[in-house]
Amino acid sequence: MQETVTSMSTSFSSKTVIVTGGAGGLGFAIVQAFLAAGANVVATDIQDTLLDALPAAVEAEHKERLLPYKCDSSDDAGVQKLVSDTVARFGRLDILVNNAGILDKLLPLAECTRHVWDSNLLVNLTGPFVTSQNAVRQYLSQELVNGHRGTILNVISTAGNHGGRAGVAYTASKHGLVGLTKSTAAFYGPKGIRSVGIMPGAMPTNISGGSHDFSQLHPEGKALSGATCQTWQGEPGKGGWNLGISPLEQVAKTVLVLCSDGMNTINGALVPTDMGWAAV
Predict the structure, then answer these.
(1) In terms of CB atoms within 10 Å, which of 6, 22, 143, 172 comes out highest?
(2) C-alpha to C-alpha distance for 260 and 256, rounded to whole angstroms
(3) 174 noted as active-site residue
(4) Distance CA 247, CA 200 (A)
(5) pTM over 0.85
(6) What is the residue-wise DSSP string for 80-127?
(7) Which of 146, 154, 140 is CA-nearest to residue 93?
(8) Residues 15, 69, 139, 170: which is the catalytic one?
(9) Which residue ranges make up each domain of the chain?
(10) pLDDT computed for residue 164 by the predictor
């Protein structure tokens, strides 16, 4: 029976997903959403404390389909082992969500240190390059299923197409991730591999290493970003919305929709999930 718009679901039963940075913040919300939809999920992170707490944080009936996995996304050998261990455990890899990332305290060019620059490029761009490369190699070794081999979803940022949303290092890394997303889509779409991205605004996550002290942000960068990002427009429950502040659970739902089989015609797309911030 042909699938219709009304019959499409976001069930991921028998699908296997890797989520980088999956033990906290948006990554954990994505892990929870995929588990609830029936997927097998490998949640990677570099923080032992968060990984150790992960099994207890998910629903009991989901534990057998969850594999917490310590892995640095920028480490070639570690990522190769991650993919091979995932396939050994669950039989196949269907979806990679590149979520791991760090911030740069909104530092402008003249004040950005080489350490901040290198760190942001390593985590936010080299990491997704390494994981995507290994995922694509695995996808190419798999049989087509309904004309499809696998999906890569990159968590980018509204900073990926704007200059005043973050500091120079983060902004450059996210612009680079846009290029990685589109190039992968163009080259591998004809081979049954999709590559898409979401562009969130600010989120209540652990991306800054657990520090949410806004006094540590560069004042000019904070003023530039805050000129368009407002925490609330209107009243809660009365038609208001968070302009620029992305609720984690809603962003996670968008990830599931974009990774579902019903979205196989979407490739190379960058979907804003910033509550309208990109429109300002």
Answers:
(1) 22
(2) 6
(3) yes
(4) 9
(5) yes
(6) HHHHHHHHHHHS---EEEE------TT--GGG--HHHHHHHHIIIIIH
(7) 140
(8) 170
(9) 16-279
(10) 78
3-class DSSP assignment, residue 10: coil
Strands 230-233, 40-45: pairing kind:
unpaired
Query: Does 139 participate in catalysis according to the annotation?
Result: no
* SS3 of residue 90 by DSSP: helix
Q: Across the 280 residues of the chain, what is the mean pLDDT of every consecutive 10-residue run? A: 45 96 96 98 98 96 97 98 99 98 93 97 99 99 94 95 87 98 99 97 60 58 58 48 74 97 96 82
pLDDT value of position 30:
98
Q: What is the dihedral of CA 28, 77, 86, 147, to 10 degrees?
A: 100
pLDDT at 275: 79
DSSP 63: G
Could you tell me the two tokens for 210? 């657990």
Alpha carbon separation from 164 to 108, 168, 204 (Å, rounded) = 10, 9, 19
Task: Name the DSSP letter for residue 126.
Answer: I
> How far from 36 is each of 39, 42, 84, 178, CA to CA, in Å?
7, 14, 24, 29
Q: Which residue's structure tokens are 């150790």?
A: 52
| Residue 183 backbone phi and psi in degrees, to 5 | -65, -45
Looking only at the bridges linking them, the beta strands covering 150-155 and 241-243 are unpaired
> Does CATH place domain 16-279 in 3.40.50.11540?
no
From residue 238, alpha-carbon distances to 60, 109, 234 in Å are 36, 41, 7
Tell me the backbone φ, ψ of residue 260, rounded to 5 degrees. Answer: -80, 160
* Active-site entry in 69, 139, 174, 188: 174
66, 31 contact by CB (below 8 A): yes
What is the edge-to-edge ordering of all strands in the sheet holding 150-155?
66-70, 40-45, 16-19, 95-98, 150-155, 193-200, 270-273
